[in-house]
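sanity check this record:

:::
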Amino acid sequence: MEIIAETFNNPAANGRTAERARLGAIAVVGLGYWGPNWVRNLHQIGCAERVVACDLDAERRDRIAHLYPNTGVTSHFDRVLADPEVEGVIIATPVGTHYEMARRALEADKSVLVEKPLATSPAEAAELVALARERERVLMVGHTFEYSAPVLKLRDIIASGELGEIFYASSTRANLGLLQHDVNVAWDLAVHDISIILMALGQMPERVSCHGESHYRRGIEDVALLTLHFPRGVIAFIHVSWLDPNKIRRTTVVGSRKMLVYDDTAPQEKIRIYDKRVDVQRYYDTFGDFQYSYRYGDIQIPRIEETEPLRLECEHFVDCIKTGAIPRTDGLSGLRVVSVLHAASASLREGGRLTQVEVPRVSLR
């Protein structure tokens, strides 16, 4: 079940192939953790005549107004939707509100970028994809790490075949906090690693199992281990935790020829390629002749030029609005990740049972 980029004739591009200098206005809804970073990047790239910031909290609005005096602030989402100059809306609100706010924005003929995850169920995500197609608007998901230079390098190395046949991937994303109140640690943290692994391997898992435990809020797991089973025996392990003394952001990919480690917390040298592998003697006369051969070669550290991923993501969203292009992390990408998380949640509720990953078909209403 390979991931194939959407290639339908995008009607949103009709009449918009010539790139415009700036958008009329773009809005950021939600000024909590990520929202202010979106506002900052929008101002830095100067992509719109106006930037509008929306939040129910007066202190958050006042802070943004102080930092960026030219930003329009409001507490009313309806005013954002009613503004004819607003062409794009970035939704950085709690996960449980993503579907409803994205739906309303698309119905108001706005292009939408939704912070991860796209929705809380595959059915909701599929509905948003269908609605964006009907309204001929851009729908993009905030899978920020897919715009990270080290992650893109990881993908390219795997695609080149340098690692050989991929055996497995293992990812750990742990820290002390931030505990969420509306979603568990898988929906909060594993969403990053799922999007990275799906992009890097270029395929979907067939089955998922998940184990986890709640220690502080009943029904909201703060530590979890996901196992993703891909075709041809490829397997991926994702360990996520809000209760770890160390900040860990590490992914290991093991191939038949070489092995790769991506450490996002490293100040430099985020990717290392190890020329290590296990060889099996192909021919032997007796069982006593059978042996493994271990190769210990050099370590390669590729040079990577980094730019803030959120800035690149922001520029990409604006460019897609201008040209009608399909985003790299489009609605279908968000639907796939949500489908994996949904299967993991079902497995978690059933004691870690191996669960089929089902991606609903997107159909126009």
Notes: The chain has two domains: 11-143+312-328, 149-305. The radius of gyration is 22 Å. The longest strand covers residues 243-255.
